[in-house]
Every structure is written in C-alpha cells, then in structure tokens.
Amino acid sequence: MADFDSIASATVAVGERREPAFVHDDDVAAATAKLAGFTDRHGTRRPNVLVILMDDVGWGDFGCYGGGVAVGAATPNIDSLARRGMLLTSAYSEPSCTPSRATLLTGRLPMRHGLQRPPMYGEPGGLEGEITLAALLSDAGYVTQCVGKWHLGENRDSQPQHVGFDDFYGFLSVSDMYTEWRDPYFFPEIVYSRARTEWVENQAFNKSFVHATRGGDVEEVAEVTIPVLSELDQRWCAYSEAFLRRMAGGEEPWFLYHNTRGAHFDNYPHEDYLGRSPAKHPYKDTIIELDDIVGRLVAVLEETGQLDDTIIMVTSDNGPEMETWPDAAYTPFRCAKGSTWEGGVRVPFVASWPGMIDAGRVDDGIFDFNDVLPTVLTLAGAADAVPSDRFVDGIDQSSFLLAPQGRSNRKYHYYWLGQSFSALRCGEYKFMLNALGDDVVSQGDVHGTGGFSGVFHKFPYGKLFNLYLDPKEQHSYMIRKLAYQQALVGGVRNHLMSFAPPNQGKLVVGLNV
Length: 513
Ligand code: CA
What we know:
By secondary structure, the chain is α/β, with parallel strands linked by helices. It folds into two domains: about 25-410, Alkaline Phosphatase, subunit A (3-Layer(aba) Sandwich); about 420-495, Arylsulfatase, C-terminal domain. It is about 25% helix and about 20% strand. The protein contains 14 helices and 15 strands. The strands form two sheets. Strands 1, 2, 3, 4, 5, 6, 7, 8, 9, 10 and 11 form an eleven-stranded mixed β-sheet that branches. The protein has a four-stranded antiparallel β-sheet with strand order 12-13-14-15, with helices on one face. A hairpin with a 5-residue loop joins strand 5 and strand 6 (about 220-225). The two termini are about 35 Å apart. About 50% of the residues are buried. Mean pLDDT is about 95; it is low at about 440-445 and about 505-513. It binds calcium ion. Calcium ion binds near residues 97, 264 and 317.
C-alpha cells in the first residue's frame, strides 16, 4: 500500500449526510487507547470543554505564530499553552464573525446554516432551527455556559439560552455596533445631532449586555457605553472564572464557550491595559489583555484541579479587519477579513489537553471550524450524537489531535464567499475560482485593504496557488500543474453535489458558480 498522501490518498464515506474523511487506522487505535485511559482515570465523568473564541485576531498576532513581541504585543500565556499542547497552522474559519461562529457551533457551512454574513443593528434571523454543539452536549449531561459575544441573532429563539446553553452572560451582537455611533471621532454627525442620536437609540436592537438562563428572557446588566465596553473583557473573564470555580469538584462535566469582546474594532482597552503593549496602540494593548485572560482561565483550571480533565481550544473567528487599520490584526497571508484569501480565513488555533494531546506538536494538517462539533462530541464520548437529519460538513478530527503525530482527517477545505463557491484547498494547493479583489484588476496589493470593500473577481479557468511556495497567493501555478486539475475540479464537483436536492443525483453541477 502506498504511503498516505494528502492529495493522492482517497477519503472514505463516513455517513449519508457527512463530508467524506481520511480514516487513519493506526491514529484511531492510538486515540481510542488514550480515551480508554482517560476513562480508567476518571470513571464515567466526561472531559470538560473550554472554547476561547477571540474576535478578529489574526493568524500572526501570537508569539507562537511568529508575532508576539515582533509585532508589539507579547503573548506569553497563549505561547505557553501552545507549547503544552498543539498548534495548528492550517485552521480555517469562515470570512467573518457570524458565519464562523455558526459554523463552529453547528458543524455546518454557512451555505447550509444560512448565516452568511453578520446581522447588524437588530436585523432578524439567526441560529434558530439549527442544532448546536451546546444542545448536544447538554443532552449528554453537560452544564453549558456561554459568555461574551454572541452575534448569532438577537431574536428570541436564536439567543444562546434557547439554543442549548444553560446560562448566558454577554452581548447579543458585535462590539462596534454598541459604540461607533457614540464616539465623536468616528460619528460626529450622529453624536452632535440630537435627531440622529435619537434615531439610532430608537432602532430595535439591544444596546446592553445581558444575562439569561435557559428558556428565559434576557435581562439587562448594563447599557454598553464606551466606558462599559472597555470593562467587558474583565467582567466576562470574572464571570467565567466564577463558573469554573463553581464547577470544580462537581459531578457534571461542563462546556464553557467564552467569547472575548477584543480585539474587534473599535478597541477601547481597559484602563489597566492602556499603553501596556510596547506598541502603545489600543489593538495591541487589547491583545495583551486577551493573553492575560487566557492565562487567568487556565490558572483557575490548574488551581481547582481541572486542567487534566479539560480540553481547551483557543482561536479567532476570522482574519484581520484591514478596513479599520491600524485597529487591526496581523496576518502574513494575503488580504483580510471578508475575503477567501488566506488572510481572511486562516486563523490561529491552539488545542491543549494535558496527558491527552502531546505537548509541543505543530501541524499543518487542515482543520476546519466545522470540525469542532464532531471532534468534541467524540472526545466527550458522544460521537453518535452528530445530527443525521441534515448535512454535517464537520469531520471527526479526534485521532488527529490525540494520536502521537496524528494526521488530519480532512482532505479538502472549501472556501465560500457568501453564496458563491470560491476555492478548494487540498494538500498544499489551493484552486480558486473567484475572490474579492481590489477595485483595479491586479494582483499587486497582496496585503489588501480588505476584505469587505473589494470587487468580485471571477477567474474563468481558475487559479492555482501553492501555499507552501507562495503563501501570499501571488503566482498562479495552474498552467505548470495541470496534472492536479481533474482531481481538484472533481473535489469541487463532489462538494457542490452535496447541495443537490434529494433524488437529483444526475444533476450536472458546473463550475460556473
Ligand atoms: Ca470577527
């Protein structure tokens, strides 16, 4: 049998409505043995799950990703967690906040869950009707806690306490919506106009951060003015610390989904962090604060004896928002948030579980946000809980994380730009059919002013990038690499066929999307 190869090897079907996966038998055996060892040590009590999701923080911001002190904000706590766990270099979010967050919680692509861009200022629509990781873990006996930014719909049935969380303490939307119209630097024409201020105040969006318990209505904690906003990450961290202390020694496992306010624009760091970074810049001061928060949550787990029982994942929901530079993250990749260039969707991802995930691993295997749901369910002993009544794009990556030198179970990453299929990655190659670009048809601006304001470029024959030789996606390699073309086109075709209505198996899906 030939050696495994991420392009040449075949995937296997894992379910009727599931993305096919690589199954590495030796990795699966090693992971299964580790999980059996955990059960031997802990009895029937399942592991806890802590997901720390940051906002608009870039692939390159943390020291362990080559940023840190080199870009004006050291991140010793995150770096330490990465050394004690696993650092993924090819983890993928979706291009912006809401699609990414919904994908993480449902295991499904935005084209399936329908949240294709962030809802703003009380727009209707959200996570209602989807099955979340929180609901599935709750069914498996977990206490489920959501803290911080939600941004998956403000309407009642899309709120966290109605989609699987026992408790929610945070805000329903996104940082800038609470403050941009209050800041005379950004919005003088609103701040200095009584009529416009009242007009915004009367718009039907929730202007507070709130508390809610399962099945109930949200209760206002405080209106999110600029001074209140600057304190949110501290208040939310304190709430999560209290939760972790309360859970220590309890019978039930828990899932804490901790979403930071930072470092989404506009950053108003807490007064204790103003000027704390060598850069002295609000974005960088916020990174220092976020790193402290990771350190505090890990310290509570350690102090309360829960660290070995807890899977920790630290990541960010999309790449840098370059339209607000310099209040923006750092990425070494092309373009920014809002795009399907690597800069928009390649995010930092650190996974730690002492004694279960080998320390010091760095791996470039593909890992998608939609993989979190099936992976966590397997680690939680609830693999069978993955929904079967709808298509789940996520792949169980538990053997990738747990086996020594485990290999990714994912062959393809699919990039979607709203409702347009944009690109496919397989191995080190990325086949791109369309993308956001500058308003001049050019590859010149590699960094991209971003993101949301570019024009839609369609590449009739597709472009092919080698992400190892050309991580900034500047040189289409297609014409020298035609041997890959049919395999890549086939990957696209199979993916698009997964959206075909039932009983239309002969539907011809072209690439002209
Ligand atoms: Ca975001």
